[in-house]
Design goal:
Elements: H1 2-24, E1 35-40, E2 46-50, E3 55-64, E4 67-76, E5 86-91, E6 96-108, E7 113-124, E8 131-145, E9 157-171
Antiparallel strand pairs: 1-3, 1-9, 2-9, 3-4, 4-5, 5-6, 6-7, 7-8, 8-9
Length: 172
Amino acid sequence: MRGSRLAALTLTLASCALTLSACYAQTPDEQPGQSLPMQTNVGAGFNCGRVSSPLYCYGIPVTVNGVPGGTFWIDTYLTGYNAQTGFIVWYGVADLAEAHVTSNSYVGSSSMPSSITVNFSGDTNDGDGGSYTGTMTLNFTYYYSSGGGGRGGAGAGYRFICTGGTVNVTYR
């Protein structure tokens, strides 16, 4: 009796081990050349805060294939010795890990562009060794804030709002 229980337990554990290894040996969920289109989900606009160099905006929401799909943080230099560098951090967007900016361009002045286009590349975070490249175009408007008064009040200066944009990722 004891031997048959031990044999059954051994078979069960062996089956679980084989099943798990088979599950992990599956092909990646993304295929090379597969496109992942996104739109910013900013409504009337997403307030990025004070105009800065590098251009910095944290928490821009996106939709992936029409479904709310997380946010991203972009930080990129438009001019200077670090021009066309920076990063994009994705928060809950598909299987995208941090991307490195490979180039960028802008329309308008470098201090307050009306539009930027950023090219980037990165790896996936789902453990399958995948990678991706992409292009992002973001549009901005600006307003002047005279600042808040009192303790902790914001200082005067220009603020910027992301009014929309597109992102296209292509898996490699």
